[in-house]
Amino acid sequence: MRLKGRVALITGGGTGMGRAAALLFAREGASVAVNYSRSRDEAEDVVAKIRDEGGKAIAIQASVAKEAEVIAMVRRVEEKFGRLDALINNAGWTQRVAHDKLEELTDDIWNQTLDVNLRGVFYCVRAAAPLLRKQEGASVVNNASIAALTGSGSSIVYAAAKAAVVTMTMSLARSLAPEIRVNAVAPGFVRTQFANWPAEMYEKALPRIPLQRLPTVEDVANAMLFLVADARSTTGETILVDGGVTRLGPRVR
After folding, report:
1. For the chain, how big is the Rg over CA atoms in Å?
2. Which member of 123, 153, 186, 187 lies 3.0 to 4.6 Å from 159 by CB, making a disulfide possible if both were Cys?
3. Does the structure show a pLDDT above 90 at 201?
4. pLDDT at position 249, please?
5. How far apart are CA 161 and CA 145, in angstroms?
6. How far apart are CA 60 and CA 192, in angstroms?
7. pLDDT value at position 223?
8. Cα separation of 236 and 59, whole Å?
9. Cis (ω within 30 of 0) for the bond into 178?
């Protein structure tokens, strides 16, 4: 029970990696605020599972791209639980655009990608920082992507946004120290519905991975838990959860 008595806010907590993190954090003793934008049923299902297992959880609707909604969300966490120890910036949005189709990368795609994946992270940190500062060992974990380091991924702007998240993680770690640690995880090709990748893309990716397994949502959640609960001397860092492919390159037989 590494998080017993602590409170975590997880954005985009109804599906995928956020869902896995919410369930894991609750099993480790945390009270969990599960944020969602559109996935109400999924978020409520996560909350129900946590409560069925004896934990404490609430679902909160808010778009992280809208600062007023973010402020209201953090206020709701404080009203319900009285504190905040960990902020997991997991909410994301993307639309697949082939990197060589520059003309298809519209202003609308640019704006929504940056609003949710980059500006939303900043809004959440800014709103949560005063509450986090009150708790010893407070932590922020941002969900980036190996696209930040490889320039690959669902679109050019998605890769750029995630690269900015990695840089902003370092900037925030410096500015919020020593009270709040700020780190990031950078998942590789995880089997989720986030970008609607066809099944064959996962099969093509697998042989390239040195560890010969695709990272799972649970792998990402465990990395988040490590940064929140155990990595007390780590800040400004980005942990890759990709089976080794980014640092080591494709598997060589």
Report:
1. 17
2. 153
3. no
4. 93
5. 10
6. 22
7. 98
8. 29
9. yes
pLDDT in tens, 91-107: 999 999 999 999 999 99
Question: What is the topology classification, in CATH, of domain 7-239?
Answer: Rossmann fold (3.40.50)
Active site residue 158: yes
Q: What is the DSSP string of 198-217?
A: -HHHHHHHGGG-TTSS---H
pTM above 0.85, yes or no: yes
Active-site entry in 36, 123, 158, 202:
158
| Distance between start and end Cα atoms, the chain | 41
**Can you give the length of the chain in residues?**
253
d(CA 121, CA 114): 10
Report domain extents, the chain: 7-239
Number of other CB atoms surrounding residue 41 within 10 Å = 10
Helices (H) and strands (E) in the chain, counts: 10, 7
